[in-house]
Amino acid sequence: MHAEPSSELGLESAAGPPVAWPAGRAGSPPAGAVAHSGAPAKARSSPPTWQRFRYPQSLYKYGAVLGALALIAYSLDYLNIDVERLPGMLGRMGEMLARRYFPPNVGHILNADYLHTVVETLQMSYLATVLGVALAVPLAWFAAHNMTPSRRVLYPIGRLVIMACRSVHEMIWTILLVALLGFGMLPGALALTLFCIGFTGKLFSEAIEAIEPGQVEAIRASGANGLQVFVFAVLPQVRVAWTGITIYTWDVVFRAATVVGFFGAGGMGWYLRESVQRVASKDVAAILLSIIVVVVISELLSAWLRNRIARAIA
Predict the structure, then answer these.
(1) Residues 125, 189 share a domain
(2) What is the pLDDT of residues 228-249, one digit of tens each?
(3) How far apart are CA 183 and CA 105, in angstroms?
């Protein structure tokens, strides 16, 4: 009669790795026995430990920190910035605001004319966003290096237009267009549209360049042309990102629309310019307060829309 195998063989021990069932022993291995010997290499590997920076990594690190500090000190000295005046700046600013701008003239922003300019600002930002996004879609397609229809012609053209619109600030566009077209909402809407083309086109093209190529290759293998590949392979992959970018663009454009009127493009900024020229400080405070409130509301609305769209798609 053979001896019964020990129940400790082949079972995981709290003190060590599992033991293999010895060859040549009679009987069947008990439940839980391991058919191979030894523990996996992963389990035996030690966790990563902390290591001190060694030369030359430490030299690069501390050299970069010292270089940044030296650049800050040089900039302060070159720009002749008096650092000693900074601690008392907040106190002087609070005293000036309390003396000249408080309390705000809330009645100035409750009249019908000013409320009409708020609606005009919303319309101008919405129109500029729609036109800018519509024009940015083909430009982003041309400016995406992996999907452009022509790398010799359309790619540099798309990049040049997007870079040109991004290089000039929307306030500068407003000043130039007001000088060309005169005062009114048209130069403001066009200036914001150009800003939207540069801002949105850059983000749209980067989203296209980050897509997975598998779906694109599958559509191309079926004999589709460039436009069909863009519609059926690219757009499904970037629609989520483009939706969030579009909402964020409207938020940024609306903030800019509250200020472009200061340069003659209509909207809330026109009232702000008029009050500044009349040195009506309390009216200026009320207008600035209304701009802050409207921008905060638009920020909350855009964040809510982005969250709803993300949950709906997920």
Answers:
(1) yes
(2) 888 888 888 888 888 888 888 8
(3) 27
